[in-house]
Amino acid sequence: MNVNNSIWDRMTRVVASLSAIAALVWVAILYFPLMHQNEVMRQQIVELDRQIQEEEAANRQIRLEIDSLKTDPKTVERLAREQLGLARPDETVVRFGIPGE
What we know:
Elements: H1 2-71, H2 73-84
């Protein structure tokens, strides 16, 4: 009788161990795709954070240009000369460029 109990005890332990291993494998199989998706999302977050920093830097530069145009008359004059080809009444505008343009 004692031999039968020890065999059943061992069998019970083996079945319980195999059940625990099967449960762990099942959980791992379920969570591996989620872990991969999480890693992909983390990479997207890093990329989006980088893009945000670039856009914020561009935004700061544009704000500085706007403030300069609002407050500095020399900036407005320089842009009028460069982009519009304007000059003061007593000045002569000379343009250099490729013929045919």
